[in-house]
Every structure is written in structure tokens, then in C-alpha cells.
Write a structure and sequence with these properties.
- The chain is of the alpha/beta class.
- It is 33% helix and 17% strand.
- It folds into two domains: 177 residues, 3-Layer(aba) Sandwich (Rossmann fold), CATH 3.40.50.720; 119 residues, UDP-galactose 4-epimerase, domain 1 (Alpha-Beta Complex).
- The strands form three sheets. It has a seven-stranded parallel β-sheet with strand order 3-2-1-4-5-6-10, sandwiched between helices.
- Helix 1 crosses helix 6 and helix 8 packs parallel to helix 11.
- It is globular and about 55 Å long.
- The two termini are 38 Å apart.
């Protein structure tokens, strides 16, 4: 599968996927939204660009753009994710053989105290769950006219823009204060974005191994206590673990205004693109020891040649530049 169309190429995950595809000499069509042209990679002999407004484009016009494409990768997020069904419809019309829904994460059931049932907690998680369900049960899939590969992963840990979510990516601060919900020794699955992108590329290079599969890629399994120790070791700076009880998450989910003020975490803080309540929901799942894929559902062994960078190597080499 050498000709690929990528939706969401200017986003954080989409950009990493695009870079990995181009390094492996795929011919890529990056589908970008109007207004994002300045963030798109420049065209080349293996990269072309189509500017498409997914809110208004017709199925026929989108199918024409995808004509001749062998695989479609969706890295759509937020509001744009609602257009993923249209993208798959058009891909079907164009004869695309493989579809990658926008997963790249992990889903959980949130349970309030005293509840006898659970919910997925937030609209963002629910939207992605619904989109994934539609993608995997799409008529083209059921009829065997298109295959799918859905890739989950751990918490992306190398996000320098996330100064609260991934404090350890910041090398210029004087000290670190890691906010932790629940058990600081609970093991968590983490993933390096570039490792993940390389794994996705391997599924295209070996389509027979990834056909109609749910896969999960993990770079490291560590606790926040271990991260704190590593951060202190390689930064040489003081690291404080700000451990909060799990009860805090229920107050924040009920009303984001209840976020502890000492976190300095709010819509005007500039510290995160992640909504406050979603941040607390994920951190609560991690503090409960639930942010792990079962061993039999970790797919790293499918492509053992993919580089796997643990958090220690990342801190030592990429953040603090130690040999």
C-alpha cells in the first residue's frame, strides 16, 4: 500500500504520521482544512496537498480526491472527527482498500461514587468511541470490500507543548511539581509519538499482518513515582509529587470550576490544550491502575524492528541531552 491519504496531517499526531510515511517513501496526499496551509509540509515528489472543508465537501467530490488511493488514515480530532464517516463513505466509493480510524489512545468507563453503572465520562471520549464503532461496522467492512486497522496506545508522553500534562518535557524550569491523582505507584502505559508513527507505517508495509485488527502500541510502562525519580536524576532539580485523592476527580467532573487553584490549570492558563475535566478523568484512570492494556492486547511483538523509546531514554537524550 504505497499511496496513502492522510486526514489531519497538520495536527500533532497527524504530523508525526506524515513524517514517518515520507521517511518510508510512501506517496502521500495530505488532506488539510482551509486556513491550515501555513502548517502543512511543503509539497514534494512524494507529497501532494488537498485543501478540503469537511463540513461542506460532497461525498462525490471527496471520492474523486481519493481516487487511486490504497489506504486512508484518519488523524482527525475534536469537531472534525464528526466527518470521519463521510471520509470512509468516500473512501469506499473510491475503492480504498484499508481504513485507519482516528483512535490513538485508550478508552475507559468512568464511575461516580455510588453508581451501579458507568459512563465514558466525557463527550470527547464518547465521540471517539461512537466513531470507531461506526468505522469498524461500516458497510464496506461488513461486506469485505474494505479492511481496517485500529491502533490504540498509551498516554503520549513527549508533548512539549503540554506544560502541565507533560511537565518532564520542560528543561528550563527551576523545579517540578507533578500533580498526581490516586496511587503514584500505579503502573501506566506510555507511548512516544514518533515510535507510534513508525509502528503505524509497519502496518502499511505488512498489510497482511494488520488486516482487520485492533492493535495497541506501548513504549513504556512506568509509574509517576518512577518518572519523578528519573526526572530528578537527569534534570538535577527538585521534583515534588503533588498527590491528590481520587475524590478530587468527581468534584472536577461535576464542575470544572472545582479544579484546585494551585495547579494553575484553566482555559486561560496557556498550559494545556486538554480540557480540565478530561485531564482529571485520564489522571484518575491512571491513579486507579486502569491505564494499562492487558498483556495479550499489546501488539509490539508484531513488528519487533520498531524502535521503542522508554521515558528514561527520552529524558536522558531528548530533553536533557546527556550521553
Amino acid at each position: 500500500m504505497q499511496k496513502v491519504a492522510l486526514f489531519g496531517a497538520t495536527g500533532q499526531i497527524g504530523n508525526a504520521i506524515l513524517s514517518a510515511l515520507l521517511k518510508s517513501d510512501f506517496h502521500v496526499v495530505q488532506i488539510i482544512s482551509p486556513g491550515s496551509e501555513a502548517r502543512a509540509k511543503p509539497e514534494s515528489t512524494t507529497l501532494s496537498t488537498k485543501v478540503v472543508d469537511l463540513a461542506s465537501v460532497s461525498r462525490n467530490d471527496l471520492a474523486s480526491i481519493l481516487d487511486g488511493t490504497e489506504a486512508v488514515i484518519s488523524a482527525l480530532n475534536g469537531k472534525a472527527l464528526e466527518a470521519q464517516e463521510l471520509v470512509q463513505d468516500a473512501a469506499w466509493d473510491a475503492g480504498v482498500k484499508r481504513f485507519y480510524p482516528s483512535e490513538y489512545g485508550m478508552h475507559h468507563i468512568y464511575r461516580r461514587p455510588g453508581d451501579t453503572f458507568g459512563t465514558d465520562g466525557k463527550k470527547l471520549w464518547n465521540m471517539k468511541s461512537q466513531c470507531n464503532e461506526k468505522a469498524l461496522l461500516h458497510p464496506s467492512i461488513i461486506r469485505g470490500e474494505m479492511t481496517y486497522t485500529l491502533i490504540g496506545c498509551g498516554d503520549f508522553y513527549n508533548q512539549p507543548r503540554e506544560k502541565t500534562w507533560c511537565q518532564w518535557t520542560q528543561s528550563s524550569v527551576e523545579s517540578y511539581n507533578l500533580p498526581i491523582l490516586g496511587n503514584p505507584d500505579a503502573l501506566i502505559h506510555f507511548t512516544h509519538i514518533d515510535d507510534f508513527a513508525s509502528f503505524l507505517v509497519q502496518t502499511l508495509l505488512h498489510p497482511e499482518l494488520s488486516q482487520n485488527k485492533r492493535l495497541n502500541f506501548v513504549s513504556d510502562t512506568v509509574s509517576f513515582s518512577q518518572i519523578a525519580e528519573l526526572l530528578e536524576k537527569y534534570s538535577g532539580k527538585k521534583v515534588v509529587k503533588d498527590i491528590m485523592p481520587l475524590e478530587v476527580v468527581h468534584r472536577v467532573i461535576k464542575d470544572p470550576a472545582n479544579v484546585p487553584s494551585e495547579l494553575g490549570y484553566g482555559p486561560s492558563s496557556g498550559k494545556s490544550a486538554v480540557p480540565v475535566d478530561f485531564w482529571f478523568l485520564v489522571r484518575a484512570m491512571q491513579g486507579e491502575g486502569r491505564y494499562l492494556h492487558p498483556p495479550g492486547e499489546v501488539s509490539n511483538g508484531l513488528f519487533p524492528a520498531v524502535r521503542v523509546r522508554g521515558i528514561e531514554e527520552y529524558l536522558r537524550k531528548e530533553v536533557f541531552g546527556s550521553s
